[in-house]
Design goal:
The structure is a homodimer of 307-residue chains. By secondary structure, chain A is of the alpha/beta class. Chain A has ten helices and 14 strands.
Chain lengths: 307, 307
């Protein structure tokens, strides 16, 4: 059941119509591992930070059951920093600052104790780094999930194609699916992408939910209609963390179980956007998660007699 | 179980990235009544056309069980005509031509045999005309569903507010819900609109599905992911027709049954967009409808054990 998570652990500074933050912790691997920690306990993190990253936050991750042996802390260097401003509709944002810092020369070293992981979650990073992680695992994990973004499609498409061939599940958003496939229709886009390597494709549509494609099957999970989306940062990573955390905890990678995993991913994402940054993910209870899952079921489930 | 449908019966000329049509039949009441005719048989139509409207199309409606006694044919006048061009994403369109013609002085006369209808579907028309129909019914129908659009919010908001107070269900799209309520969040928008008269609100999100709000409850039905949306014209009206047709056939206006009605509305809309205009709605079989409903269930239903 062990889960290996790789991705950025970083600082973010966020502006939304509801306010703005100072530098707070963020990064794909932070959201993924925090989110998955509500489902499974053997979580191994591979990432890099500078010595400006607060030790208290690393301690907190450990308290949540996340093994940080693989988190490299680079003396005299600074952590990756991203700053952005969301527009009023919360669906689009401007990047204000990107400082790669330690991420520029990130060498993802896999501690020996992390070998033989069953589940691998490749958070958004350069595709070549994601590939390196797979290459460095002596045994291929049972399930490899990869997140990526449009940026890599623009500057590293060849690497991206190489890495795609090695993964089981790709998670991208609708615009990225269109860009990667050259198809506007998501059904056609999915069909093309499923010939590029992954046998499952998750298309994240933000407030419009998520689609899971596999062979000729398709499943859709809605997002919870919320009064306010306070801060969408990390929602996609939180979704991925809930998704793979649930799969790891159940050790069942069937299509039917992936449907449930997508519901749990959506549940976790619905919490994430309620507060700035990782705040809402830091102290959830199992009761809250189960209650939210019931809301999702009420939202989308219907009994019908069909002949 | 009798259903009274009011709205436009008209000509459309449509351009999409897939092609363009000559003048073909369209209009809200045409789509609504054709769609509902697959569910219920006592359908009474109130509308107006000019003598340019093909008698063969009126005959066809009658063959589908639609009573056209209330369809006024104005000698020497022309039918309402709309022409539009869809953009590549199919989510936006430009209106090229709008000729009101007979619709300009439409007086919705209710034939005596149409009195005592149980279900009333007010297709998109001036709000004052919609109100007139309610006023002219000696007994209030069991369920009044009203469709409207942003145009009336801009030029006839007072009339719209008056009419809203008299209906049970309002169907609008997400942008219209935002405009009517002044709220961006659809949850907040729904809460406000539910104080304006209707006790149920359906927000149509096109390819992103539909939401049903009632008191503190909310239900979401996805749209079927399609290879191609050939022509979205009439999809919203077709949805409304399937919705109210199913309710009329089951005579059950509970929230739970409305969920099923929304699935059937979505089923019918998914057929509508497969061909230009009303073409796909003209010869569906019950087997096709049931098979499509099963696809919707597969798409969105999941079994979960929650504690």
């Amino acid at each position: 059941m062990s889960l290996l998570v790789i991705g950025s652990v970083a600082f973010d500074a966020i502006e939304t119509p509801f306010g703005k933050t100072e530098k707070i912790i963020g990064g794909a691997a932070t959201y993924i591992s925090l989110s998955s920690s509500y489902f499974t306990k053997e979580i191994n993190l591979v990432a890099v930070v500078g010595d400006d990253f607060p030790k208290s936050k690393i301690d907190f991750m450990q308290k949540r059951g996340i093994d940080t042996t693989g988190l490299q802390v680079k003396a005299g260097e600074k952590s990756f920093f991203w700053s952005g401003r969301y527009h009023n509709d919360m669906n689009s944002r401007d990047t204000l600052i990107t400082e790669l810092n330690v991420l520029e020369n990130f060498d993802p070293i896999i501690p020996e104790a992390y070998q033989n992981c069953e589940f691998l979650m490749l958070g958004n990073l350069t595709p070549s780094t994601q590939k390196l992680v797979i290459d460095r695992l002596k045994e291929r994990p049972r399930l490899v999930v990869m997140d990526t973004m449009n940026f890599w499609m623009e500057i590293a498409m060849d690497d991206l194609r190489q890495t795609l061939k090695m993964v089981d599940i790709l998670t991208i958003n609708d615009e990225e699916a269109r860009q990667l496939s050259g198809e506007y229709s998501l059904v056609k886009a999915a069909r093309k992408i499923l010939t590029m390597g992954p046998s499952f494709l998750i298309i994240k549509k933000g407030e419009h939910g998520a689609l899971l494609f596999h062979q000729d099957e398709v499943f859709f999970a809605p997002a919870l209609p919320l009064e306010d989306v306070f801060d969408p940062t990390g929602a996609g990573d939180t979704f991925a963390g809930g998704f793979i955390g649930y799969l790891a905890s159940t050790e069942d990678v069937s299509f039917d179980n992936m449907k449930r995993a997508i519901i749990y991913g959506s549940v976790m994402a619905s919490f994430c956007v309620e507060k700035f940054g990782t705040e809402r993910l830091e102290n959830l209870s199992q009761e809250e998660i189960q209650a939210r899952a019931k809301e999702f079921m009420k939202l989308s489930q219907v009994e019908m007699l069909l002949v």
